[in-house]
DNA sequence: TAAGTTTATTTGTATATGCAAATAAAATTT
DNA sequence: AAATTTTATTTGCATATACAAATAAACTTA
């Protein structure tokens, strides 16, 4: 059944959750090329762009709870893609050489994902939708 | 930080996931009045509207995997809000009297949630966005 | 400077969701 | 009617995410 035909097709909760699940499935496929689920990939890209970034900032940028950030970093450390250093109460997260080598491949994944959905949805339309969703999310975010 | 300002503010994965998390948080609040997380509430509403509905149909309507539907029904059974009957390979799901009593309250929750987000976002704008998201999700589906 | 408060991060625990395999019934084919 | 295929559901296992509490460091204030 189509979402637009569902009883709840007019409901923001239902629709945003269903959309996010479908988009995530697509993203998971794209990111298989670097053997990372998308949330890990996005965190790692943020770390690659700001080596030494703190978990609190990652939490603010990625809109994930601090505890979630901790958990994601732990896994990236296990995979030897990130390391933490500790100085008093603050923690810095750095990419490993292995992560730096992966960076070009990750950019490809991002591009492939982008092309995949814009080819399905159209560049115009998807870009407008993404912007609208962002605005709405910001309004809800308080 | 605002989503629209984030490095990934243009990315469909990031934005749809972040939006869904924020919307879900709002929905959770609304549904506390009946002590149900939103996914359970939506399933139960579907069962109330079509008593005897099969898990496969619930899966199609709610865009959740069959295994997820099974798990949600199990919890609703524990809470004495639903019962399953088994006939060969098919399963039928019925609401209990307790669930029927709750129905008006659930409708209130749905309304309150709707009012809450439309007051933040505007009726026009949110209704248009929800429709667009539904269309996009349908295009991505499969 | 000691006491209290705030901030940063992690840990313990709970929940949601999914995939893949298992099970079992029904339908189809030979 | 036996063998095969398809369909419906559940189960086992894995993962993502969050909340609340715990920890620990840094700041503020008296």
From TrEMBL, chains A, B:
SUPFAM superfamilies listed in its UniProt record: Winged helix' DNA-binding domain
Native organism: Paraflavisolibacter caeni
The protein's name: MarR family winged helix-turn-helix transcriptional regulator
Origin superkingdom: Bacteria
Domain (HTH marR-type): residue spans on this chain: 29-126
Gene Ontology MF terms in the entry: DNA-binding transcription factor activity
InterPro entries the UniProt entry points to: HTH_MarR-typ (IPR000835), WH-like_DNA-bd_sf (IPR036388), WH_DNA-bd_sf (IPR036390)
